[in-house]
Amino acid sequence: MSARSASPTAPLPAALWLVAFALAAINLRAPIVVVGPVLESIMQTLAIGAGVASLFTTGMILCFGVLSPLAPGVAARIGLDRAIALALAAITLGGLLRGIESLPVMLVGTLFAGLGIAFGNVFMPSLVKRDRPERIGQTMGLYTVVMGIGATLGAGTAVPLMNLSGHWSVPILMWAGVGLVTAALWIWLAWRRPRRADEGQSTRITRLFKSRTAWTLTLFMGMQSLGFYTLQTWVPAVASAAGVPSAAAGGMLSIINLTSIPASYVIARLAARLHHHSLLVLGLCLLIALGLAGLWLAPTASPTLWAILLGAGQGGCFSFALTMIVMRTRRADHAAMLSGMAQSLGYLMAAGGPLVFGALHGITGDWRLSLWLLMGLLSVQTVAGVMIGRPKLVTVREG
């Protein structure tokens, strides 16, 4: 079923569908990263320490883990289009509240934004499964690319907008404005496209708990997310401690994120054309292993190369995981269930990664044991990836 024929009662032009899809995707990353670059100014304004301030970012990840399982049930109750509109409205409200100079209000805003993004993360693969099953690779590639662009724009424009306006709330409120426009578009789409007859079936993720494929994908996504957020947090510090100049160490993070954008698109397109995916994911995990080995054994030799390898491997694995959510399920509601399970448990696994990585450095005084930990977890990710690469659909317990 194409986007043009997604609803028999209200045909939707493919171009409009893609615009709405891309706008929704950009709102699932930019609001997360826009706070980080202006966090020091927020701390000064609110007179809070780093521990409290970390709730603005780590609180988001915890919301993803805790609230994602609720998303399939919401979509089943009110319909997928309305559920996406509701998620975007929550993101918008969260952004507006996070732009107010009050710690309690900002924390409430973080909860709303985290809720909306957690739900949106679950809904988007299900939307692709429902509306564009014949163009999975193209659409999931677009999805991951737009999220990467959103993250890059959110982080890259935050400080310039703050400096231009004189206040840290402006970049946060600007993205809330983007969310408002997107939510309005999806509310209109939800009104235009009535709830489908096949929506409303049982979507409890517990129905997947006896599926080995579902658990394997969940483990893969958890290890991938843990590695990603750990590297996002600690790569500059690890590189600097090893002798990489501070400017180059900070630049490694930008290179990782920029490299992940084209890698995610290519892998989604390639994965959709393949029947067996084990060799593909094995190659992606090997890229990450080479990047980690270079960062550990010869960090100053070629930090740019290590960053490119890490970005290509991480971006490709993330795109692969999302694409498998669509390809390893039979129906859109099954995709929502698998997305909720994989992302919920996956983000819960990821939440402790940066903390444990840093704690090991505090205990040992260097980063070797921390990097060994990442390599060990990468081996788990690799085995899970090779298993999920086998063409086997998830089994859903009836009843």
TrEMBL record:
Any one GO molecular function term: transmembrane transporter activity
Record bears the keyword Transmembrane: yes
SUPFAM superfamilies in the cross-refs: MFS general substrate transporter
Positions of the Major facilitator superfamily (MFS) profile domain: 15-394
Gene3D superfamilies to which the protein is assigned, alphabetical: MFS general substrate transporter like domains
CDD domains documented for this protein: MFS_NIMT_CynX_like
UniProt keyword annotation of Cell membrane present: no
Transmembrane segments: 48-71, 83-100, 106-128, 140-162, 168-191, 212-235, 247-267, 279-298, 304-325, 345-363, 369-389
UniProt xrefs under InterPro entries: MFS (IPR011701), MFS_Cyanate_Porter (IPR052524), MFS_dom (IPR020846), MFS_trans_sf (IPR036259)
Keywords, alphabetical: Membrane, Transmembrane, Transmembrane helix
Name the UniProt record assigns to this protein: MFS transporter
